[in-house]
Amino acid sequence: MQVVNSSDILRKPALLSSSEILYIEDGRKHMLKSVLLPIDLYETVREQIEAELYLRKNAKALGADAYAEFKEIETVTEDLAK
To answer: Phi first, then psi: what are they for 38, rounded to 5°?
Structure first.
């Protein structure tokens, strides 16, 4: 795990090919802005990330109540799958 800012990446582009999780923060506000995952880890969590992006993209269509209900059902389904 390594925390860097965008200036660090500009100075050392090799950081982008790190085998560690890379946390990228805003240089001025010192707030976390992005996370860079190694490809092997990404392959493991890819479906979860894509599902969450889909839900966020369609949050208005689902509505807050439907979104909460879906997340509840998803958790139960995951537990049953184990």
So the answer is: -65, 150
Query: Residue 23 pLDDT more than 90?
Result: yes
In the chain, what is the greatest distance between 2 CA atoms, to the nearest angstrom?
48
> How far is Cα 82 from Cα 77, in angstroms, rounded to an integer?
9
Site of tokens 């059902």: 73
Residue 65 CA: distances (Å) to CA of 10, 60, 72, 73: 43, 11, 11, 12
Asked whether the CA dihedral 36, 39, 43, 47 is positive or negative, the reply is positive
Residue carrying the six token digits 């909460």: 68
Segment 30-41 mean pLDDT: 90
Interior CA angle at 30 toward 54 and 9, to 5°? 75
